[in-house]
Design goal:
single chain; mainly alpha
Length: 152
């Protein structure tokens, strides 16, 4: 019963914060629980991030597949300093995502703080909760910096 209450609370929070992503995700999970399909929750947990990243990558690559991005556009993107900064940003983002995945594997209870932090970011900062791996990567970097400063 506790899980259902948390999901209902997340639906309300998502509605109040106008976050369709949180609302939809909580609704889907509530339906899974109420229809007694809990046996699929481990699979959703295990493969959900992969599927989410797959669809996010598909959406980002559509301009290439549709022909809206031409070879000249790619060359033009790297002819200025902003393209090189974007390249560095992509590389750093991928690195942080890998650190985030490692951190969540070693310390899975951090997901609670990341989820709550994502909800706070959506509600108060008008953010978009698409980056739990990035949030975990940033968490890993902050934890490492604190360990270096404190000496542990």
């Amino acid at each position: 019963m506790y899980g259902e209450l948390v999901l209902v609370a997340l639906i309300v929070i998502g509605l109040l914060g106008r976050s369709s992503i949180i609302t939809t995700a909580a609704c889907i999970l509530l339906i899974v629980k109420l229809t007694h399909l809990e046996r699929y929750l481990p699979s959703i947990e295990r493969r959900g991030i992969e599927l989410g990243l797959l669809f996010l990558t598909l959406a980002v690559l559509v301009p290439f597949a549709s022909g809206r991005v031409q070879p000249k556009d790619i060359v033009a993107a790297f002819s200025g300093w902003t393209g090189w900064v974007a390249l560095a940003g992509g590389a750093i983002g991928a690195y942080l995502n890998s650190r985030g995945l490692d951190t969540l594997k070693m310390d899975p209870q951090l997901i609670v703080g990341i989820v709550v932090g994502s909800i706070v970011g959506v509600l108060l900062l008008r953010g978009i909760p698409v980056g739990p791996l990035m949030a975990a990567g940033i968490t890993a970097i902050i934890l490492k910096l604190i360990q270096l400063l404190v000496g542990k």
